[in-house]
Amino acid sequence: DFKKGGLSWSTLRYMICEVMYGGRISDKHDRRLFATFGETYLGPQIFEKTFTFFGENYTIPQGQDIQSFRAALEKLPLNDAPELFGLHPNADIMYRTKQSQQVLATIL
Fold this sequence. Notes:
The chain is mainly alpha-helical and 108 residues long. The chain has helices at 9-20, 28-41, 66-75, 90-107.
């Protein structure tokens, strides 16, 4: 049972953040950021009912059946907020501006 400490979180974080994905990150600042994400999101706190990844929309689905997971996925917003990825809200404005410019350039 994971809730009773049957999982070594430090080992899991090392395997994910340093070996599997971290080994592919070459910039030392990006590696540190990825390790910070691991510390924040890979721990026993994810099993608490109050845990959210970002705001109230990003929770871990409760339940054992596929229908509860599908229902949780349907509740997710269609467009993720830039803050979810650690970006400033203006990042979304810039992205949409560039996207519009590319569409117009393609049409014209």
